[in-house]
Amino acid sequence: MRKGFIALYTATAFAGILAVCVSQASAGWFSRQHPRRAEIDRREEHQQERIARGFRTGSLSPAEAQSLESQERTIQHQEHEEVRANGGSLTKHQAQQLNREEDMLSREIHHDTHN
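The chain above was modelled as a monomer; its predicted structure follows.
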């Protein structure tokens, strides 16, 4: 009787752990593929490319490039913190705020590369 109880308890615990792991894995995949996160990630990648191109061509000084990279890292850190706090996704309001910050950084990149 005792062995049967231990086996049943072990099987139930294992099934519970497996269910949690599978749901977390699928939630992780979903959150990375969510359109709001994908849009922000694409913008961040594009900004990084623009900064690197400006530095390579000499239109950005090392100090300007470093400052822009620092601002981009700050936005990325903010996104990661908001995603972590929100269970793996961004709210519409958070995505709008991040897009506004990316807009301001985009204008600064344009200004610095064209002056």
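Residues 1-33 form one domain.
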